[in-house]
Prior knowledge:
By secondary structure, the chain is α/β, with parallel strands linked by helices.
Amino acid sequence: MSSDKEKTQIILNTLNAYYNHGSRQRRFVKFPELRLGSGYSNNSQRRVDYFVIDSNAGNVVTGYEIKASRQDFLKDIKDPFKQRGARQYCNEFYYICLEDLIKREEVPLWAGLIQLQKAKYAPYNGYQFHIAVPSPYYEKTTPTWSLICAMIRKFEKLKEQQ
Length: 162
């Protein structure tokens, strides 16, 4: 099978295909690999793999943590502070992986799980989304200026790449 880097790219490409499809392109503001602050404190150094704001639904924020290997997932859930920063700013938080990498019962209570299933007629990059565990909905913290600066920097960087 593919390397972890290739699996991660498949997941990123699928998320991009989903959020760039039709009217979603205008509705959602998305940030791949978003740093959670502009300074050098611990929280500012943390990143969320994919951060999405739904501008049509009250600015609901969804965070995705991409997992390409079981070892990475198991290491992640052993550190209770690893996802704290991302969850602070998200209404929903999902682990996202290729099919059968993470078991439903392993998912922490504060997270959801999306598994990408390869399908012949799948609409997004040859994959379809399967919500194996729905994410709980949480009220999010108001974004800090540090987060807003990080988002603007990321947006500028993404614009330069186009």
